[in-house]
Amino acid sequence: MRWTQTFIPTLKESPSDAEIISHKLLLRAGLVRKLTGGLYTFLPMGLRSLRKIERIIREEMDRAGATEVLMPALQPPEIWQQSGRYETARDVLFKVKDSAGREWVLGPTHEEVITHLAASEISSYRQMPRNFYQIQTKFRDEIRPRFGLMRAKEFIMKDAYSFDATDDGAMASYQRMYDAYTRIFARCGLKAFPVEADTGVIGGNHSHEFMVPAETGENDVVYGETDGYAANIEKATSRGPLHPTPAEATGPAPEKFATPGVVTIEQLSQAPHHVEASRQVKTLVYVVDSQPVLVLLRGDDTLNEAKLMARTGAVHARPATPDECVATLGARPGSLGAVAGVPAKVLVLADDALRGAKGMVTGANEDGFHYRHVEVDRDLRVGRFVDVRTVHAGEASVRSGEPLRIRRAIEVGHVFKLGTKYSEKMNATFLADDGQRRPCVMGCYGIGVTRTLQAVIEQCHDENGIAWPVSVAPFVVCITPLNVAAGSAPLTLAEKLHDDLTAAGIEVILDDRDDRPGVKFKDSELVGFPLRVNLGEKSLASGEVELKPRTGPMVKVPVAEAAQRVIAWVREQQAALNP
Ligand code: ATP
Ligand code: MG
C-alpha cells in the first residue's frame, strides 16, 4: 500500500475537545473523525486496526468453541417487555418509530434476541453446550458520551451467549470464555487483568471484568499487590475500616443533646461537640424501587450505591430529597437517626462496620438534636446488617490481610454467569436427560471492540504518538524512501522491499509522499507503525539501510539483508504476543 493511495489525515495539534491522550492520538493520527458527540467515522488506518482486533477475537472465540451469528440491531420492544428490561434498562434504550407509528428498540446488548432464538432452537440437553457470538454495532443512550470511542452512543461489541443444561456446564462455559479473554487481550498487546465484578440484581458470584490500568479509566479497582485479590470497587470488600470502632462496655442510656445548626458529620466533629466522625452514625435515606430505605454507616464511611442495589435486589436507587426525608422521618438531613419513631414499614440497613458499636452519636429525628451514648445493637432499630460501605486504600485484604491498593482502570470486557434469569422469563427450556423440562443455564460475555482499540492506544504511546503492538498495528512496517523521484535509488529499493515483504505476508506501507524527511518521520511515529525502514541516498551509497523500531534504537543493516532482517524482527515481535 502506498501512503498517497490511502487516507491518513494527521494533525499537528489535537482538537480542543479531546480530553485524554488516546482520544487525542486517535484524532491526530487520522484514525477516526467525529461526526458528533459519541459518533465516529473510522478512517482507513483506524479501520485496519479495528479489523485486526476483530480477527483476533474471532480466532479465539472459534478456538473456545463458540460459533458466529449476526443478530439484528433493530429489535421489537415485546422481547424487552418479556425480559423486564424495557423498564429496567430504559435509561440506555434508544427507541425509534416506524412510519406506522410502531416503536422499535436499537439493541444495547442482545440477551433478549439470543434467548428468543434459543427458545425455538434448543429443545434437548443433547444440543448443549452451545455458545453463539457476534461482532456487531450496539446503541446506548449514554448521558455523557466522552473520551472518544471509550464511551460512545454507537460502538462495536463482541457479545457471546452460552447455553448449558447444568450449572456445572455453565461454569465450564464461563471458564472457557474467561480463558479466551485472557488470550485475546494478550494477543492485542494489552495488559488487562480480570477483577471480580458486581452482579447487581442478577446475583451470583460469577462475574469478572477485564480491566486495563489507566489513570483515565472510569473504574476503581481494589487489589492486593501480592495475594491476587482484585475487585471492582462496586464489589470490593475488606476486613473493615482501618480504625475499627473500639470495643466498649455497655454504657448509659442514650441522652439527647442540642446541636443547633449542625447538619454535617464535619460540623459535629468540630467545636463545641468534638465527636469524631468514626463515633457518628451517618443516616441516609434512599428511595429504593420507590420504597424508602434507611442506610446507616459509620460517619467516616461512604455508601457504595452498587452494593446497596445488590443487597436489596433493587433496579433503581437514589438519595431521597429533603422533603422525602421529612415525609419519612419527620426531620431534615443532618438530624436523622434510626431511633424510636422510625415507621415500621421503613427498612433499616446498617453497615457491618457498625455491628456492636457503642458510645455512638446519631441524629434524634428532630431538627437540631442528636443522641449520644448510642449502642447500635441496643438502641437502633436495625433490620439487617449488610456490607454497603466503600473500601478505602490501606484496609486489610480479606485474603491475606495485606493493605489493599486502589487504581483507576478501563473496563474492556465483561464475563457474566447469568443463570436462568432470561431463559425462565423467555421460556428457553429444554428436555433434560431425566425427562424433566428445565430452563437453559446461560452466560453472557462482552468485549468492547472499539473501546479495546482505544485502550491499546492509552497503554501504548509516548510523546511522539502511538506505538502499536505488531498484532494490531494498521501496517507493521513503514518504508520511507527519502527521495521519491521515479527511478531514484531510494524509491527503486523501497518498491522492491515493499514487494518482497508483502510476499512474505507482512503488511507494509510505502511512504511515497514528496515531503521532507522530518515530516515523514514525525507522521510515521505519530501513526505508530512498529518498524520504519529509512532509505536515504547517503546510507544506500554506503550499502546500508536503517531499521528504526518505533520503541527501540535504530540499527543499520546491509541492503542485501534488509528484507530478511525485517522479516526476522516482525516474526520475533509476533511470537512475543502469542501466549
Ligand atoms: P460501562 O460500565 O463502562 O458503562 P457496561 O458494564 O455497561 O460498561 P457491558 O454491558 O458489560 O458494559 O458491555 C460489554 C463491554 O462493552 C464493556 O466491557 C465495554 O468494553 C463496552 N462498552 C460498554 N458501553 C460502552 C460504550 N458506551 N462505548 C464503548 N464501549 C462500551
Ligand atoms: Mg460491564
Describe the structure.
Strands 3, 7, 8, 9, 10, 11, 12, 21 and 24 form a nine-stranded mixed β-sheet that branches. A five-stranded mixed β-sheet has the order 16-14-15-17-20. Strands 28-27-29-30-31 form a five-stranded mixed β-sheet, with helices on both faces. Helix 1 (21-28) packs across helix 12 (449-459), helix 2 (44-63) packs antiparallel against helix 6 (167-187) and helix 2 (44-63) packs across helix 12. The chain is globular. It starts with 20 loop residues before the first helix and ends with a helix. It is 27% helix and 27% strand. By secondary structure, the chain is α+β, with helices and mostly antiparallel strands. Adenosine-5'-triphosphate is lined by residues 109, 140, 142, 151-152, 155, 157, 411-414, 446, 448, 450-451.
Helix content: 25-40%
Overall geometry comes to globular
Q: Biggest sheet, in brief?
A: 9 strands, mixed
* Rg computed from alpha carbons, rounded to a whole number of angstroms: 29 Å
Fraction in beta strands: 25-35%
| Uncertain parts | none
Total count of helical runs of at least 4 residues: 16
Q: Residue-averaged pLDDT, rounded? A: 95
* Tally of strands: 31
Report how far the terminal alpha carbons are from each other: 30 Å
Helical/strand content category: alpha+beta
Q: Which small-molecule species are bound to the chains here?
A: adenosine-5'-triphosphate, magnesium ion
What order do the helices and strands come in, and which of them pair?
Layout: H1 21-28, E1 32-36, E2 39-42, H2 44-63, E3 67-68, E4 74-75, H3 77-83, H4 85-88, E5 94-97, E6 103-106, H5 111-121, E7 130-139, E8 154-164, H6 167-187, E9 193-196, E10 207-213, E11 219-223, E12 230-232, E13 255-258, H7 265-269, E14 281-288, E15 291-298, H8 305-312, E16 317-319, H9 322-329, E17 347-351, E18 360-363, E19 369-374, H10 376-379, E20 384-386, E21 405-419, H11 421-425, E22 429-431, E23 437-439, E24 441-448, H12 449-459, E25 461-462, E26 465-466, E27 477-481, H13 489-503, E28 508-510, H14 517-527, E29 531-535, H15 537-541, E30 544-549, E31 555-558, H16 562-576
Helix pairs in contact: 1-12, 2-6, 2-12
The chain binds adenosine-5'-triphosphate (ATP) and magnesium ion.
